[in-house]
Amino acid sequence: MPSRRRTLLKVIILGDSGVGKTSLMNQYVNKKFSNQYKATIGADFLTKEVQFEDRLFTLQIWDTAGQERFQSLGVAFYRGADCCVLVYDVNVMKSFDNLNNWREEFLIQASPSDPENFPFVVIGNKIDVDGGSSRVVSEKKARAWCASKGNIPYFETSAKEGINVEEAFQLIAKNALKSGEEEEMYLPDTIDVANGSQQRSTGCEC
Amino acid sequence: MGSDSESPTSSDDSTSQNPNPNPHPNSTSIDQSLDAIEDQLTSIALAQPNDLASDDPASSSEEEEVFKDAPNGSVLEEENQKERNEGEIVEEEVGVVAAEEEVREEGRLGWRRVNSEVEVDRLSSPSSSGYAGERGSSGGASTASGIEEIGEDRGFDGNGRGEFFDGASDSQAPPWVPGKRHVDEDDASVSWRKRKKHFFILSHSGKPIYSRYGDEHKLAGFSATLQAIISFVENGGDRVKLVRAGKHQVVFLVKGPIYLVCISCTEEPYESLRGQLELIYGQMILILTKSVNRCFEKNPKFDMTPLLGGTDVVFSSLVHSFSWNPATFLHAYTCLPLAYATRQAAGAILHDVADSGVLFAILMCKHKVVSLVGAQKASLHPDDMLLLSNFVTSSESFRTSESFSPICLPRYNPMAFLYAYVHYLDVDTYLMLLTTSSDAFYHLKDCRIRIEMVLLKSNVLSEVQRSMLDGGMRVEDLPVDPSPRSEFSSPHLGQSRIATDSPDRFREAFAGIGGPAGLWHFIYRSIFLDQYVSSEFASPINSSQQQKRLYRAYQKLYASMHDKVIGPHKTQFRRDENYVLLCWVTPDFELYAAFDPLADKALAISTCNRVCQWVKDVENEIFLLGASPFSW
Ligand SMILES: Nc1nc2c(ncn2[C@@H]2O[C@H](COP(=O)(O)OP(=O)(O)OP(=O)(O)O)[C@@H](O)[C@H]2O)c(=O)[nH]1
Ligand SMILES: [Mg+2]
Predict the structure, then answer these.
(1) How far is the CA of A19 from the centre of ligand 1 (A)?
(2) Counting atoms of ligand 1 from 1, which one is nearest the CA of A35?
(3) CATH code for the part of the protein at B338-470
(4) Where along chain B do its domains lie?
(5) Burial of B619 (0-12, 13-18, 19+ CB in 10 A)
(6) Which of A39, A40, A45 lies nearest to residue B221, judging by beta carbons?
(7) Domain for residue A190, yes or no?
(8) What is the three-class DSSP state of B465?
(9) Is residue A101 part of a domain?
(10) Model pTM?
(11) Which tens digit of pLDDT belongs to each residue from A115-126?
(12) Rounded to whole angstroms, how far apart are CA atoms B119 and B133?
């Protein structure tokens, strides 16, 4: 079979319970929204194929549970993520305050090789609620926080109305792709029978 | 916020639009959720319908017995669905939750997924790779039941290459076709869920590397689920080895950053399935070496799939061999029967080249060894031979021209590449020269030319072809009285078969079928030589399906004989509706024999003695003697 090179990107969605992580994912993948709240248990996994600059790749989306009792699952879930999406509810101050915890928790658990430049995306969700009148976190405040954390890209969305969701995920995919680009070199050994020792085939470490 | 702090299995939080972002669940809710998960264990892969339509009649009464106790594995789909809907978990979106329990490191855990729009969503959202609507990839069994199970290789069995037929299906099945099949499937496909035996390789970050069926990328959600389960248990300082869910076993093998999983309802023992995962891992190491681990150490995101590009055939051929090649569970290799002098001649010329800087020189015909030689102290593990010959015979490109390829022998040195010069001398016979030097191609080519000349001159190649046509030991040729060994002084096994109805054929009770005393088949494994010999299949074990079933029965015997907890046994005699199986283990050899289910026990035992004597009488022809014993 022709090995058309495809890239798989692992995207983790984090944030307090009820901020709309699952709803965002469903809106993005299935173009659906439900008013019913169904707490995610553990994590939900969805895949979506995305085209980007003539390349086809697969987003493996890990929608995690925001409820506290699942937070011990962290390490298991975060390892090897290509991008991390932090979601809060613009109508709930606590969910915004917790962004910092989510971010730090992720960096500790996933321990990415270059934490400074690890691609995060922040989403302020539920901007539709009460026509915006119950909003407690201003866009300015949110952007300021994002700027202070190394210019994290910021989106304001409504999973319910489908506002900005596609755009947010497009950037998520793009940034995930960028971060995956420095590929690891794969350097097997060869055997040197004469010396009875092992050598790197490249010899670059001599 | 309703029931967040109550049991997660409670259904009435559906009205709650604004859940408390900081719930403080009490401990019972977790317990209850684990209970609920246990209840759902059956949904782990695919709940089984009654086995009615199964195409594998291997479900003997004996085996059915075993599975009677299994939890509602055969509950029909509608019932399952109803239970769930009444039950409470309807509100939960998905779940991956793991729980450890049980002694011996065996965790049991489950995931479940409840949804109400299963079939409806199938057509929507082509971009969502099959996970349409509200379904997660971690799907349970819901859509799976009530439809007949699909064979492992249905429609592709039989065999183009080995001499046995593999068969999930009947003997008219078209020949086994190498390569990946059913690429269009994913875990939302009913057909995918019905496959009897799945194999997966994934990375410790949950990225898919290989799946026997279906497209790896479409299965990304499923492999994420598997990773979550494995890592969750690992986090608790434990390891998950096996999950039973009704008729299904989910077997896990963790090799550093590489996770391997088998989901099977073939009723093979856990040890056998784990052994198969070990071989799959070994095959991957053979292609890449263990150096890939370093890539994961530096970068957990590392995506291995590009490195394995084009090797689907190698893995699918290995998986196929689990059902026709006993080397996969015996950890021994088999030789092509040849006159002693012929094999000696082949060995002599291989020896010559081994002295000139070739690490291993191996001459094989299909999966059978003609001769093999290792330089000084180097010795080759039977599993490495199996993986190497699978790699060579499954890759079409080796057939068309001489090749030079890096390969790694996992048991010899898993970290490093060797270089293999491979050349087919005729359609089935190939020479492999292994070296440590990456620039030895021309030297090895010269070696091959010399070897080929000698083999032609000494008629080794024509003898090889003749032996292929003649076949090996046949149960109906089992001599009556083992003492007069003169009968087997003939240069080739096949010649003793000429007078089939001569008086020394012993066929009193079961004339016409199989050998004496109802003997249908045997495998003899020499422990010292690391080699086995298997009799040719004959009536009534004719179809590929029957052969596969017999191998599975042997494999079960093998596992039970080597069970460290119960064993080691010396002998085992089993009778079920399919066979009498007799196994005899000594420090020197192991014998596995299958008889007619009505065979007389005492007669069967004495027949086994005669088989052993027979094997010893012809060992010069069926085994490679004097090869250096495998020291590790
Ligand atoms: N009005 C409005 N409601 C939303 C929006 N997004 C989500 N919701 C609602 O908010 C509730 C919670 O949404 P979920 O997507 O389940 O929240 P979650 O973050 O996945 O929660 P956990 O799984 O518990 O971590 C649901 O009732 C949704 O219908 C939105 O953009 N606007
Ligand atoms: Mg959720």
Answers:
(1) 5
(2) 29
(3) 3.30.450.30
(4) 1-76+471-632, 79-147+153-322, 338-470
(5) middle
(6) A45
(7) yes
(8) helix
(9) yes
(10) 0.72
(11) 888 999 999 999
(12) 10
